[in-house]
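Re-run with default settings, no changes from the original entry. Doing this only to confirm the output is reproducible before filing.
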Amino acid sequence: MKLHAGHAVIIVMVIFILIMTQFMVRAYYNQEALVADDYYAKELRYQEQIEKHHNSAGLAEPVHFAVHPGRLVLTFPGSVQHGPITGELFLMRPNDADGDLRVSVTVDPQGQYTLDTEPLMKGAYSVHLEWQAGGTDYLSETAIHIP
């Protein structure tokens, strides 16, 4: 049997359909997680975040993030340690939302907060610390690596 031009067109179309089907199956199983499920609501409150950043930039010294084996130590500026400091710490893994951690922060009398990092996955984290001191809201952000 001889192959004609019609046969070649059909073979090319079948190969094209198979390749496209493979791409669709791969795309279906490659689910990308959103950074935040409520990203639209967060976008509406973005001006508040800017003001918190501005408050943090106005401090004489920033919050110090120190990674030690098995723990993360946050040291708050001495200028705000005259009253209670509370807040929320959010550790976000850029490549795996299952490794994210959100904890409440209560600072000890020395102006420090210590987080046990043993249960956390090793690797890079983006750290967002929203905290309050003396009736003022602050936002401190940095990137860390848990060894």
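Residues 51 and 104 are 21 Å apart (CA to CA). Residues 5-29 form the longest helix (25 residues).
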